[in-house]
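Model it.
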Amino acid sequence: MRTMVRRWLDRDFVFITGEAPSAPTAADEMKALVAEMEAELEIHGLTLADTVRTRLWAKDRPSRDEASRERRRIFDGPARSVSSSFIAPSALSSESAVAMDLVAMRSSAPKQLVEYEPPIVPLRYFVQDSIVFLSGVTAVLPGLEYQVKDIVGRVTESLAHAQTSWDRVALVSCYLHRSQSVDALQSLLRPMIPANIPAVEYEFADGYSEPGKLLEIETTALGNVIR
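Modeled.
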């Protein structure tokens, strides 16, 4: 397990990445991994309620689906946070079927949770301490160009719903299918995003929550009320 403490956006964040201990099922692995991460958070004076984002990595679709259901069960109530999930066997170096990235933020402010309508497994977004965290957004459409257009449009709607905009975005994280190129994605994103984003990062995956998806985008933005 790796832990990084980082000062970002004038707040203190803890980033934890780890592979699950080997267990009979993906749900058991997720449960054990979260317990290890919870213990790590306690070292830094935090709890699961301080989680702002989780990112699930799995070796195959059945493991992803089972672990995702268990993650949703665990991260409920005060621990509810934004999320994304990927199939990426190369991300796991052990025999485990599940790994996860967890991001926590030190804050005494309450989370203002906004669900999709009707609610689905991922949270649409939440606002805490004037930072807006969006879950990963994907689309099942023919081709990367159509998926990018749909995803950017829905992120734009969520930012507006949260009373912020692209010019307040601090980080865009793109998880691109290995069959696609970063150059192609950049050429599509550039004219669609009406702002200069200070940080854009790219990582690769082999699959998502449904077949046919080629991209998932996470977004973190500042709200309009600054401390």
